[in-house]
Amino acid sequence: MTENQETPDRTLGRPRATTHDVLAEIGVELFTRHGYEHVSVQQIADAAGVSRRTFFRYFPTKADLPWGDFAREVERLRGELALVPDDIPLMAAVRHAVVEFNRVPPEAVDQHRARLGLILTEPELIARSLLKFRDWRQVIAEFTARRLNLDPTSFFPELVGEVALSAAVAAYRQWIPSLDTDLSTFIDTAFAAIVDLDRLEQGVAAQLSMRLDTRGRDHRRITGTATIQEMQESQEENADETR
């Protein structure tokens, strides 16, 4: 059987698409109609007119299907970030890229809404999102690290990645039941609330790092994890201040 022969029948009026996209569309439709847990891989393969072997060539598990070709989407996000001029402040750049990344063509809105609804509500898919969103956050962290000349795994790049993802997910949750507002509006509004993070490019990162270092010792003392030497040093510092 050739690749063209493996595509699903055209009775549902679907436009031509990659096999990844077609399988994801059919799967999401079946999940929405019958419930995620009640639809098997075999049923999806039968509806698409392909074998189970072909299904697993594109998706390792059923839980991967609603994500479509997520590796391609992660690279698309990377591409959007690369297009932002270097003179655009950090969070403004992230905001612009994530908004553009989340623009949905009118003909794909219903499918995308159903897809996100499944990903954010089904327990098995929520668990899968921990792995999927990790790759998404890493793209943001790497971009941030280049801007701040830091290691991508250091605190501030990871912070920006987490904040960006949280803003996007919060926007997704609000958009799913909001049929009269486009997703990009929710995304843009979410990022508008965190613009103060632009201060990271004004030398605040180094200052906050120093504060975290000094506060860390106080935190260990309060929580009982400080060493005896640290507690003695803290007591001596407090004594000096009262003299």
From TrEMBL:
<dbReference type="InterPro" id="IPR001647">
    <property type="entry name" value="HTH_TetR"/>
</dbReference>
<dbReference type="InterPro" id="IPR009057">
    <property type="entry name" value="Homeodomain-like_sf"/>
</dbReference>
<feature type="domain" description="HTH tetR-type">
    <location>
        <begin position="17"/>
        <end position="77"/>
    </location>
</feature>
<dbReference type="Pfam" id="PF00440">
    <property type="entry name" value="TetR_N"/>
</dbReference>
<dbReference type="InterPro" id="IPR050109">
    <property type="entry name" value="HTH-type_TetR-like_transc_reg"/>
</dbReference>
<keyword id="KW-0238">DNA-binding</keyword>
<dbReference type="Pfam" id="PF17754">
    <property type="entry name" value="TetR_C_14"/>
</dbReference>
<dbReference type="InterPro" id="IPR023851">
    <property type="entry name" value="Tscrpt_reg_TetR-type"/>
</dbReference>
<protein>
    <submittedName>
        <fullName>TetR family transcriptional regulator</fullName>
    </submittedName>
</protein>
<feature type="DNA-binding region" description="H-T-H motif">
    <location>
        <begin position="40"/>
        <end position="59"/>
    </location>
</feature>
<keyword id="KW-0805">Transcription regulation</keyword>
<dbReference type="InterPro" id="IPR041347">
    <property type="entry name" value="MftR_C"/>
</dbReference>
<keyword id="KW-0804">Transcription</keyword>
<dbReference type="InterPro" id="IPR023772">
    <property type="entry name" value="DNA-bd_HTH_TetR-type_CS"/>
</dbReference>
